């Protein structure tokens, strides 16, 4: 098996398993443990996984955000609820920003009933969903494509955002600690901050599992958003911190 095909196979296995040991991977792909270590080193250097004791993981940490494909499979029902609820914040004729996150990205499939709309996004999944859709004026942000985040970032994307204005922006974040949002990647943080500057109204969509996590880079205080949408009420102590900080929290329960 060629190394690039084997590495793709390792990533596909991790998409389902979340993490794996070197011994298991060596047995699965019929190669030596040394070969597996070289594959994992290469994949880690490319930012697709993180090596842990005895193996590798694609699960997030304070320094590592998961691959877009893995995040799409996490808390799917809750993310769908949040996306459906977020549509109530949009009116026909508005300009809407949707970020690279898998949670905010789920809004795209709900926009047909709100046309006409102008949609600005660096999220390739959103761009593919809306490309050619009638009544949707789609503005795809340029920049350097990130396979890991399935979106566009960097100087070109940032320059575009600085020249645009929108009625509403929907963002996601990988970690909520206290009353602040954090993310592991500084380019992603910069893009999200510029989206917030460009929009009159701002909403954060995060599944309940993001609370109590932290990441390397501070994104913003949660009070900067008109509302934070989540699918399950946080623990009382967490809720008290949010209330004290003036955070508008909307809990979108099942059946609501």
From TrEMBL:
Annotated HTH deoR-type domain residues: 3-58
Keywords from the named record: DNA-binding, Transcription, Transcription regulation
Entry annotated with the keyword Phosphoprotein: no
Origin: domain of life: Bacteria
Annotated protein name in UniProt: DeoR/GlpR transcriptional regulator
DNA-binding as UniProt keyword: yes
MF terms in GO: DNA binding; DNA-binding transcription factor activity
InterPro entries from the UniProt entry: ArsR-like_HTH, Carb_Metab_HTH_regulators, DeoR-like_C, DeoR_HTH, NagB/RpiA_transferase-like, Tscrpt_reg_HTH_DeoR_CS, WH-like_DNA-bd_sf, WH_DNA-bd_sf
């Amino acid at each position: 098996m060629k190394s690039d095909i084997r590495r793709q196979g390792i990533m596909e296995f991790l998409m389902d398993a979340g993490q794996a040991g070197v011994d298991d991977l060596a047995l699965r792909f019929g190669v030596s443990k040394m070969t597996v270590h070289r594959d994992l080193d290469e994949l880690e250097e490319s930012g697709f996984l993180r090596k842990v004791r005895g193996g590798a993981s694609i699960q997030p940490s304070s320094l590592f955000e998961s691959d877009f494909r893995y995040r799409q499979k996490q808390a799917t029902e809750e993310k769908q609820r949040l996306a459906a609820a977020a549509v109530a914040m949009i009116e026909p004729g508005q300009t809407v920003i949707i970020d690279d996150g898998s949670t905010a990205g789920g809004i795209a499939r709900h926009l047909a009933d709100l046309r006409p709309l102008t949609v600005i996004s660096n999220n390739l999944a959103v761009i593919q969903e809306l490309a050619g859709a009638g009544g949707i004026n789609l503005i795809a942000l340029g920049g350097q494509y990130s396979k890991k985040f399935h979106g566009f970032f960097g100087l070109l994307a940032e320059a575009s955002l600085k020249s645009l204005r929108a009625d509403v922006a929907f963002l996601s974040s990988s970690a909520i600690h206290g009353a602040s949002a954090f993310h592991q990647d500084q380019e992603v943080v910069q893009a999200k901050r510029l989206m917030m500057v460009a929009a009159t109204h701002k909403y954060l969509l995060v599944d309940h599992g993001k609370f109590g996590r932290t990441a390397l880079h501070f994104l913003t205080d949660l009070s900067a958003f008109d509302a934070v949408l989540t699918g399950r009420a946080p623990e009382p102590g967490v809720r008290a911190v949010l209330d004290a900080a003036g955070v508008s929290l909307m809990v979108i329960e099942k059946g609501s």
